[in-house]
């Protein structure tokens, strides 16, 4: 039995959002071919798997924007044009796949200010980033950088 067999893609998606598919691929590459493993080999394999997961999560977290502040667009909402241009397939924080929905739900797409409006963040594309509802609401008035640093796995 491979060490990776204990982690289903559903488990990975729940734990790591969109980073799960990347992590699952890395785990599959890191895991050895099926064979009986010694305790020492199992520890080494576990370390490789955890490393692959940590790298995938780190890549997802580090994709947030620096943002922009000041100027005539400071403190204003995004236009529909900016929202559509900022929409991507992944949340910049958790790597999950946000969905378009008219009703609130954890994976609902939100376009977030990398530098919050309350701190003078602009309503331009350079300050717009795609997030899921859960991450955006957890973010509060922190900048993308502050939120990313807080939520990094230790």
Give descriptors for this structure:
single chain; 154 residues; mainly alpha; DNA Binding (I), subunit A; 2 domains; two-stranded antiparallel ribbon; 2 strands; elongated; disordered N terminus
What does this molecule look like?
This protein has 154 residues and is mainly alpha-helical. The chain has two domains: 3-61, no CATH class; 80-150, DNA Binding (I), subunit A (Orthogonal Bundle). The protein contains six helices and two strands; from the N terminus they run H-H-H-H-E-E-H-H. A two-stranded antiparallel sheet has the order 1-2. The chain is elongated and about 65 Å long. The protein starts with 8 loop residues before the first helix and ends with a helix.
Q: Report the major sheet.
A: 2 strands, antiparallel
Instruction: Quote the average pLDDT.
Output: 74
CATH architecture classification of the largest domain: Orthogonal Bundle
Task: Outline the low-pLDDT stretches.
Answer: 1-5, 9-20
Query: Structural class of the secondary elements?
Result: mainly alpha
* CATH uppermost class of the largest domain: Mainly Alpha
- The CATH topology assignment of the largest domain is DNA Binding (I), subunit A
Over all CA atoms, what is the radius of gyration? Answer: 18 Å
Number of domain modules: 2
What is the H/E string? HHHHEEHH
Number of strands: 2
- For the biggest β-sheet, the strand order reads 1-2
Tally of helical runs: 6
> How much strand?
5-15%
Distance between the termini: 28 Å
> Helix coverage percent of residues?
40-55%
Which outline best applies? Answer: elongated
